Amino acid sequence: MDRPQSIIYCPPCNNSVPSDEELYSPTKPQHHDYTVQGHSGLPVMPKTISGNTTTTAASSSTDSYLSPQHSIDEQELCPVTGRYANIDDDYHISPNVLGKGHYGIVRECTHRATGQTLAVKSIEKSKIGRLDHLQREISLLAIVDHSSVMRMADSYEDADYVHIVTEKYAGGELFDRIVDSTNTSGCFSERDAAGVIRSLLEAVSHLHSNGIVHRDIKPENILYESQQKDAAIRLIDFGLSRTHDVKRDGMMANPVGTAYYMSPEVLKGSYDKSCDLWAVGVVAFILLCGYPPFNGNTDEDIFAATRRGHFLCAGVAWMIKSDEAMDFVTCLLRRDPRKRMNAEEALEHPWLSGMSL
Question: Is 299 marked active-site?
């Protein structure tokens, strides 16, 4: 299975904004890139909570420093966070690179006061035409607190860079474990697949209960905390996420995401948070058999298959899978989102409850 990537295209500036998947992992082949137009759902920038202190998100890079006596317009210089500060004051940044992307790198960093080892994603602002999505990503991460979601520790901004400091997860992507595990008999065992999906659904349930829709759930955006086989997972990449209340905002319209995981209603341009459950269904299907339910040589081929909505739990891989597993993915891959399970219903499905015994 080729590794897809999600790309946001900004018509006014003719530039794209990278996803966390690009920055948290080494350079990957460019397959099934999906161009998305339009921006929406930008919340007000909150304060970043770090430890026992609450400060407005801000920072500076290791390459530049602006002395306090200089009079500057911080909002103009630092449009993402609204405040300038020096990350070097709080963190020692290691030369150890964890991942590279088109717009920045992820390195280890150590909190000077506590000695805690974390990860910092440094994004070069000059390479990004519009900073709306970066601002939104930081603001959402600042309010999300769940054991299956990436946790942000700090965010900083200077004249050249935005730095996002998060916990360090050393177990690699779910995508890579899928590649390593897939064979003619399928991919993960049902018990292992159910463990991943249960944690993912708990994360989705938490996001949805807080009015947040992720909109880019895929194996590349799911990291393991460690290299252990049964390590916990973390959902990352909030670059396409947004707050949404269907009663207040109406249906979402911008067709954002990654081709394999986009639901029929997203392609239609009228959707709500149920699009995340479709994506979870696609991930579950892949974990069980090793290939996606809606496939194709191009994005358009994948979209056409998704719109048709026909998939088969057939072949050698599915011959040894339980009826409950097949029913689970079927209940999530319903073309009509009104008939699709929500996160709480999916967590109560007999397949998940049976695998936890």
Answer: no
